[in-house]
Amino acid sequence: MREKNVDILVIGAGAAGLGAAIGAAREGVNEVVLVERDDRSGGVLNQCIHNGFGLHYFREELTGPEYAERIKRIVQQYPNIDVKVEQYVHQIDYKRKEVIVASTEGITVYKPKALIVATGARERPMGGILVPGTRPAGVFTAGVAQRFVNLENRLPGRRAIIVGSGDIGLIMARRLTLEGVEVVAVVERMPYPGGLERNIRQCLKDFNIPLYLSHTVVGIYGRERLEEVVIAQLDESFKPIPGTEKRFKVDTLILSVGLIPQSTLFKDFLKIDPWTKGIVTSSSGRSSLNWIFAAGNCTVIYDLVDWVTEEGTVAGKFAAMYVKNSWEPAKFFVEKGQNVGILFPSWYEEGTNLNIYLRVKKPMEEGTIRVKQRNNLLYSKKHLNLSPSEMISIKIPESKIGSGDILVEVLE
Amino acid sequence: MRIGIIGAGVVGALIARELCRYDVEVLIFEKNWDVGMGVTKANSAIVHAGYDDEPGTVRSKFCVPGNAMYTELSKELQFDLKRIGSLVLAFKDEEIRILEELYKRGEMNGVPGLEIWDRDRILSYEPNINPEVMAALWAPTAGITEPWMVAMAAVENAIENGAKLFLDTQVLEIVTENQRVKKLVTNKGEFEIDVVINAAGMHGDEVAKMAGAEFVPLHPRKGEYILLDKQEFSGFVKSILFPTPSVLGKGTLVTPTVDGGILVGPTAVDLPPEREFREDTSTTLEGFEALMSKALKMTPLIDFRASIKTFAGLRPESPQKDFFVGRTSVIGFFNVIAMRSPGLTAAPAIAKFIVEEVQESIGETFQKKSDFKPTRERIKHYADLPASVWDEEIKKDPLAGRMICFCNKVTEREILEAIKRGARTIDGIKFRTRAMFGSCQGGFCMHRIMKILAREFGTDISDIRLRSEGSFILLGQVRK
Amino acid sequence: MKVEEMVCIMCPLGCRLVVKQEDNGEINVSGNRCPRGIEYGKQEMVEPLRILTSSVLVLNGDMPLVSVKTNKPIPRRVIMQVMDILKNTKVEAPVRVGDIIIKDVLNTGADIVATRNVERREKSSAT
User: Fold this and answer.
1) Which among A147, A351, B77, B324 counts the fewest CB atoms within 10 Å?
2) Which helix (H) or strand (E) holds A7?
3) Pair B156, B210 in one domain
4) Hey, of B305, B469, B474, B480, which one would you mutate to test binding to chain A, going by the most A CBs within 10 A of its CB?
5) What positions belong to coiled-coil segments (chain B) (predicted)?
6) What ipTM describes this predicted complex?
């Protein structure tokens, strides 16, 4: 068994992990090692061949693979970053600060001074939404279907229905239609769509794909391969209304019903949000343990990969500062006020910028977002057309922030 | 002496293995694409203690002995068995009276270690049980296992000892002559046969009718289940929790699985006996609602947002609610049907019984093989090894370090071994290695598993099925 | 008169536009906070433009497909025709990000360019 001391170990070489490596290397540490369990770095960017990436980070609209390529090229500029693929993190001993990793070369026990978690998210499977019926072939989560179409050159089916109007579902509606698959409908349980407006227009309206809001799938049938999907309308308590069933003869069901941060490896020793399963972090990316940082979808589910890379860079920088100077400043709570559904980060550490990412609890035509610290108003602005589907990013520079707990609220 | 076993579920598989101890030719006929994929695949996976069975029933003869045999069997065949004990919970005075009855019944059946626990003892052992519980019957010999693995391991062992397995082979006709079995006609050919063991699960009565033998009419009793993520709920309960039984049966359980997850189920709905219902394993909204409300009553803190899988299984129920096993008026034809609960538990004891029954009935004593190999090696799960040992294994075999299923830590070597042991479909890999059984349900690894299967079979990934002939996963190419 | 509501995508503000087209062809855009919104609203009403992203078959590559895009938005109405062209296009590995796969596709003025690298491998992976 090999033992390896390293300044910084990053788990995951997707958008967040690569960003973290850049942030750490820029700050100046001896060695940053990334361990990635897939056979290539880049994470889901490799299969997101649509565009919409990089508008903020590179000021250019790029496709996923192009964005990944740009980030990788930056990483390559730093000789002290080592990206290793097909590495599986098996166990973490948080007391001894050891990370046990398996690969075809054997077991390596890493002893990092700081650990950055960038494990991303996984898709909620069908079993997670309790759909009655049979369990035939032809049911895919959207990411899996995307992987087959874009990387493996295979179609999941010929006639599909998509459940979930989040961006991934909408993107796949368009992708499948362009490749000759008939997409009969997109079904959404909420009364409002889950994805960005531009995707509703460019993925559904452009192709006349009907969107059924306040509907969910109540049955899937087929002996060996999927044959029929039944949907029904939901009432205000999300119960199916009898008599509103609509049947669709399809051979493919694509599920885009939520992303879940991958935090299980850490649940015994890091603070994890009990509702979202995200790793709870501060504005520096630091978790509830001083030597472990986290960034990306494993903390909160982001809308834009640009923000993921940025937060990765932040975590990398401060992890490096911790390694070099034992950086550990005063910490304050960042609390959810009125109408805030999802809020990141949960703590503010002095000396960092406060990059807030939030989702409102319910759609609001107009809302004033306020960030207060004791009696000081750090931010107050009226926002229009707020929706839980669109994440809001508010950046408050360090110079404006004093000491004390911070409250984020949205007033109607 | 050629013996044909119809059905490679846990019952047929254990009978086949038992027969392989003797100098007889053993042929196993299974209509599905893999072993243990019928009734055996979808049930509660419980090895019951044996207090439920009323004395005088056939069940009561075999449950307790079968339960005891599981210890040795699990060691020989290397499948998981965890004797975690069971608690039958009583929430009312009438229920406590039923517990006392079960206790007496259990003693009569020879169930060891039974105790009645009071509320304090129950809650200190299982803090997540509803504090309104009044008493419970504790049975330490109850356990959990992996039923399809019992069947798969038994079949592997039988094959190693000379048995022949015919998958995708359905018996269409049983030819008899002078009230004696002569030939089996299947979709894959005809087989001259001396003895037929009918272990055809949900189709047991149909097969008996083919031979003109006695039978009991069977109908499917559907049970729905919800499986909760082990990453969220591991350790929620440590023993098998039963409600007080009713006329409908043992009721909806909340139990750990050998994998560390939590299983809730079954419901119990009788379906009509017609053909189309015999394979109806669809789940229903009413079923989910029933499961959730029953589980919440026993363990109010259970959270169904952590569900990762729902499924349903069928149990072959007869009007007598009992096994129907033994010789028939057709010489050489033996029934092992209506194997409803506790069929899984009773199976090893039934296997031994049938082998005696066959010899007695046809008046022959089989010769024991001197070279019968009783043990079968499990597929090594490298992630369970101590890190330094795993490291050595990888140095000898790099594929033992290439992780394919991340959630359940299944390496490429294990996938290849599963293929060696008979897996040809996604389910074949899943059920032999537990790949794709975890939190992501195959989201990250299914394409990799498909590529490995395609590579090993020299086909394209588009040819890979989920579980059967027509269950293709991919339907065409994007670009040709 | 045609009325459409849409969200402007010219910048992250995402103004909610209301675009009205009179019977005589005249277009009126409201809800914008800058002139780019008017441009976008008019274009979207008259001739919606889209960036098309898709894949092209690669021969002898370490992947079967190379992801591609149009380097400029093209009229929405020609998308399916361009898709037909892409379906019949093959390219030899190696391919580099930015390589022009098809110049000026269908006279739109836009090129089809590769958006990822594909290395050469003589024995090509699953086609």
Assistant:
1) A351
2) strand A2-11
3) yes
4) B474
5) none
6) 0.94
- pLDDT bin (cut points 50, 70, 90) of residue C127 is very low
Sign of CA dihedral A384, A390, A396, A397: negative
Distance CA C68, CA C89 (A): 12
Task: For residues B154-174, give the mean pLDDT.
Answer: 97
Cα end-to-end span (Å), chain B: 54
Is-above-0.90 flag for pTM? yes
Q: Residue B292's domain is classified under what CATH number?
A: 3.30.9.10
Q: Tell me what the pLDDT averaged over chain B comes to.
A: 96
Distance (Å) from the alpha carbon of C7 to chain A's nearest alpha carbon: 7
Within-domain flag for B431 = yes
- Together in a domain, B367 and B392: no
Task: Give helix then strand counts, H and E, for chain A.
Answer: 6, 27
Contact assignment for C7 to A69 by CB distance below 8 Å = no
B38 and B162 belong to one structural domain: yes
C54 touches chain A (CB under 8 A): yes
DSSP A204: I
Q: B47 and B148 share a domain?
A: yes
A112-128 pLDDT per residue, tens: 999 999 999 999 988 88
Q: Which chain B residues have a beta carbon less than 8 Å from that of A109?
A: 387
CB contact under 8 A, C56 and B479: yes
Tell me the pairing of strands B46-47 and B81-82.
unpaired
Residue C48: cis peptide before it, omega within 30 degrees of 0: no
Q: Output the domain CATH number for residue B72.
A: 3.50.50.60
Q: How far apart are CA B14 and CA C67, in angstroms?
A: 53
The structural domain count of chain B equals: 3
Residue B77 and residue B147 share a domain: yes
Q: What is the CATH number of the domain that holds B418?
A: 1.10.10.1100
Residue B12 forms part of a structural domain:
yes
B345 shares a domain with B274: no
Which residues of B are identified as catalytic? 48
The answer to whether A144 and B461 are in contact (CB under 8 A) is no
Q: Is B470 within 8 Å of A153 when comparing Cβ atoms?
A: no
B442 found inside a domain: yes
Count contacts between A and C (CB, < 8 Å): 65
Q: Determine contact: B454 vs chain C, CB below 8 A.
A: yes
- The minimum CA-CA distance between B406 and chain C, rounded to whole Å, is 23
Distance from CA of B305 to the nearest CA of A (A): 7
* Closest in A61, A150, A201 to C55, CB measured: A150
Interface partners of chain C (CB pairs < 8 Å, 3 or more) are: A, B
Tens digit of pLDDT for each residue in B449-480? 999 999 999 999 999 999 999 999 999 999 98
Q: Which residue of C has its CA nearest to B460?
A: C126
Question: Which is nearest to A279 in space by CA: A306, A8, A289?
Answer: A289
| Cross-chain Cβ contact B479/C126 below 8 Å | no
Distance from CA of C79 to the nearest CA of B (A): 17
Question: Which residue, of B378, B407, B425, is where some domain finishes?
Answer: B378
Domain of B150 in residue numbering reads as: 1-81+142-218+318-378
Q: Do both B167 and B181 map to the same domain?
A: yes
Query: Per the CB < 8 Å rule, is A90 touching B409?
Result: yes
Judging contacts by C-beta atoms under 8 Å, the chain B residues touching residue A135 are 281, 311
Task: Check pLDDT > 80 for residue A392.
Answer: yes
The whole-angstrom separation of Cα B225 and Cα B261 is 13
Residue C70: the pLDDT is 97
Q: Tell me whether residue B470 is in a domain.
A: no
Among candidate residues B235, B259, B271, the one with its CA nearest the CA of residue B309 = B259
Q: Are residues B111 and B229 in the same domain?
A: yes
- Is the Cβ of C7 closer than 8 Å to some Cβ of chain A? yes
In angstroms, the CA A255 to CA C69 distance is: 26
Looking at per-residue pLDDT, the higher value among C16 and A360 belongs to A360
Of B350, B378, B406, the domain-final residue: B378
pLDDT digits (tens, 9 = 90+) for B11-32: 999 999 999 999 999 999 999 9
Average pLDDT over residues B202-211: 97
